[in-house]
């Protein structure tokens, strides 16, 4: 169900979503890969950088204090995602500031070591015949 919904939502983007997508798409923003209308579990995120585990939601007034949005944010957080929410108006009037917040979130995600990194503190020893 989510894949079909995501495809439909890609065709119905708001002006704010279009503006932000123009800046995020095709590795234009910090050379990062963002996807739009990404199915994650039972939800569809407006935009996501899956490597940094950052989800971006662009909301209209109908989302104010929405229990569904709170449930979505909780679910995404439990999956390890950081959720950034912006109002349509913020994106349209302050695009550069919105991009600054996204940049900070992605950069901080890059600096957070993955849970398995301590196990890889030193490179594996070479197999017989591969080293000096």
Map the helices and strands.
Blueprint: H1 2-11, H2 15-24, E1 35-40, E2 43-49, E3 54-59, H3 67-78, E4 82-87, H4 88-93, H5 95-111
Parallel strand pairs: 3-4
Antiparallel strand pairs: 1-2, 2-3
Distinctive features:
4 strands, globular, alpha+beta, 132 residues, four-stranded mixed beta sheet, Endonuclease, Chain A
Explain what the structure shows.
This protein has 132 residues and is an alpha+beta fold. It has a single domain (2-101), classed as VSR Endonuclease (Endonuclease, Chain A, 3-Layer(aba) Sandwich). It is 42% helix and 19% strand. The protein contains 5 helices and 4 strands; from the N terminus they run H-H-E-E-E-H-E-H-H. The chain has a 4-stranded mixed sheet with strand order 1-2-3-4, sandwiched between helices. The radius of gyration is 18 Å and the shape is globular. It starts with a helix and ends in a 21-residue tail after the last helix. Mean pLDDT is 80; it is low at 114-128.
Concise description?
The protein is α+β, with helices and mostly antiparallel strands and 132 residues long.
The secondary structure category is alpha+beta
CATH superfamily: VSR Endonuclease
- By CATH, the topology is Endonuclease, Chain A
Distance between the termini: 55 Å
Q: What's the main sheet like?
A: 4 strands, mixed
Q: Shape, please?
A: globular
Number of domains: 1
Mean pLDDT comes to 80
Enumerate how many helices there are, as a single number: 5
Radius of gyration: 18 Å
User: What is the correct CATH architecture?
Assistant: 3-Layer(aba) Sandwich
Identify the CATH class. Answer: Alpha Beta
Tell me the β content. 15-25%
Low-confidence spans: 114-128
